[in-house]
User: What shape does this take?
Amino acid sequence: MTLMQSLQAMIDAECTKAHTHRVILRVASGDGQVDFQGSAGNATPDIRFPIASISKTCTAAMILQLVDEGRLSLDQTVQSALPDIDLSGLHAVQGVDHGPNLTIRQLLFQTSGLADYYEGGVAADLVRGKDYAYDLHRVLDWAREGKPQAAPDSGKAHYSDTNFQLLGAVIEAATGLCFGDALQERICAPLGLCRTALFDPTRDGGGQTLPVYHRDLRLDIPRILSSMGPDGGIVSDTDELMTFLRAFMAGRLFQGDHLPVLCQWRPLYLPLQYGGGLMRFKLPGWMTLWRPSPELIGHSGASGSFAYHAPEPDIFLVGTFNQTDAPKRPFSFMLKVLKTIETHRDRT
Assistant: This one.
């Protein structure tokens, strides 16, 4: 069996598991020797799908571009970048109001400790079939009503979609463009992406974009998807997501000296760490009987979407399960893919 046949067999087997409606995978090696695209279930390899929180990496790229242009500084306060939005009372911990002093860096690296508006209510609503639109002001109201995760710079990353909703507003204020137009001008046009955009119900409904499932429940949530924007509202396909991932990891979207800074990791939850708009997955030795385990750098989403680079074998992996009930599933799957590639390389 060839490598391509083995990878397709893996996808087919994965799709037979309970509550799995489709699997899409795109794999490429840095040297060009591996190049695979496949799907199983009710999906074609080239169909567009919600990339969920991989959107955060797009947001991070635009923030870094604005830093390069001198329009922003990572260490300036968010309040200074958003003078028309009152951030007071947004993040009070032990009687101290941190809201007006939060920095862009703290948002980007998930070290603000802000309450997560998405996990605070939207995630539960969407699996109940509720759908509604919301804007930044509603997000900030939810964050004020929620419980802070920690004081800023507590030593750990505390994942919060609220951080990236605010970063989206910072991008809009600095560019004078709505987030979707900024995405097109700053990411899509330079990379030649024509199928990547913010979710639009009039364009992406009616089977044009993969529907998201929770177990066997098809989620009809066009207004929520349209509201996620900078923290989870982008749709793409595997070819264009691969193009973006490779450009990001090569530092082609911003000055190259930013990438080592983005890869300054803080503990998130085992075995994940968070940097600047990036995740790092690396199994500790005690979980692998001290056998080497690949490092994966990129981002994944609550819908089982994934876009990661494994630096040591120099393999890029993107795809989706499109299931909100299995956000951790891509990690074991990607490790199987890497193991399959390694096995075939050892034979040749």
